[in-house]
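User: Quick sanity check before I run a bigger batch. Here is a single chain. Can you write out its predicted 3D structure?
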Amino acid sequence: MASAPKQIDLTGLRRVHELAAARFPHDYLDVGLGAIGLFLNDPPKNAGYRCTPTNSLTIAGLGVDGIHVGCVTDSHVVDPMAPIVLTIPMAFESPNFIVGETLHDFLCLGCRNGYANLANLHLLFDDTMAYYQGIDDDDFDDRAPKILDMLATELSLEPWADVRQHFDELQSRFMPVLRMPAIP
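Assistant: Done. Predicted structure follows.
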């Protein structure tokens, strides 16, 4: 029997961000979860790009090229049990990818290597899948491993066992629920 999905809400994620910022400060590099490629939006709102699903609330950005992560929802409130979509505005052909069944599942994807390299999904798909399957020991920021360990511990995160298989399952299950803006 499968266990119930774990629930993490934005309050818990913000708490970990603040904890990381306090424990691992830096004079000029990004603080908190920004050091691992996750820049929280407060408050969450639809990013409004032509490729951002209309039924999503942007909860974070990756810090480059408008790439953002959203919760798929029909309300104006983030549902931690809803699918998570990554939108890459510069990926004109296919800008959206489902990157988590829930917020917890999404956070599990990057709990080893961070979230910044998700920006490469549209250009280097196979390499990105391999990157998230493995462990990256070449950290740009020496705070990253400590922040990732703290994030995983605080939120009970475990990496996806088979990244490519889980990713493919998420696309087939949840891509059909995305609603795109009307093209003028």
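The radius of gyration is 15 Å.

User: Great, the batch can go ahead then.
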